[in-house]
Write a structure and sequence with these properties.
It is a single chain. The protein has 145 residues and is of the alpha+beta class. It is built from 5 helices and 3 strands; from the N terminus they run βααβαααβ. The chain has a 3-stranded antiparallel sheet with strand order 2-1-3, with helices on one face. Helix 4 runs antiparallel to helix 5. The two termini are 15 Å apart. 34% of the residues are buried. The C terminus is likely disordered.
């Protein structure tokens, strides 16, 4: 049975210390007390899902054959490329995420919310910090992908 990955976005009110962001993005089990507290205060949105068939042939940030897969890969990329962090949601990132979420000709059907719901969530949470995290999880199994 093929594994299904579910993407939730967590909009956190404060930045995450770099050492805890490193633990988060590397899926380690080390304690992250600041991150855990920030996630308890976060707002969440379920975005959609994907499976192995939606993965891009070449791993490039923002690629993939479902909107949720593209958003996850882009957030992972910008959360780890220069330094470990929860990316700040600004207008530029919001525009990029909305663009990545738009349907593409090569997409394979997958569970996904409507684009206006994503846009509304992002607009309401500008200047907060985004992580691909499920509500109520210490660290999501989504990351083990």
């Amino acid at each position: 049975m093929e594994e299904i990955y579910h993407l939730w976005l967590a909009a956190a009110p404060t930045p995450i210390p770099e050492d805890e962001a490193r633990i988060y993005w590397n899926c380690k089990d080390d304690p992250t007390p600041t991150l855990d507290e920030v996630l308890r205060c976060a707002s969440y949105l379920y975005v959609g899902s994907w499976s192995e068939e939606h993965e891009p042939e070449n791993l490039h940030a923002g690629e993939g054959r479902s909107p949720a897969n593209r958003l996850f890969s882009w957030l992972f990329y910008i959360g780890t490329i220069d330094r470990y962090q929860a990316p700040l949601l600004n207008e530029e990132l919001m525009t990029r995420l909305v663009d990545l979420y738009r349907a593409r000709p090569g997409d394979i059907p997958a569970d996904a919310i409507e684009l206006p719901r994503l846009e509304s969530f992002l607009r309401q949470h500008l200047r907060l910090y985004l992580l691909p995290e499920e509500p109520g999880q210490e660290r999501s199994d989504l990351m083990h992908h």
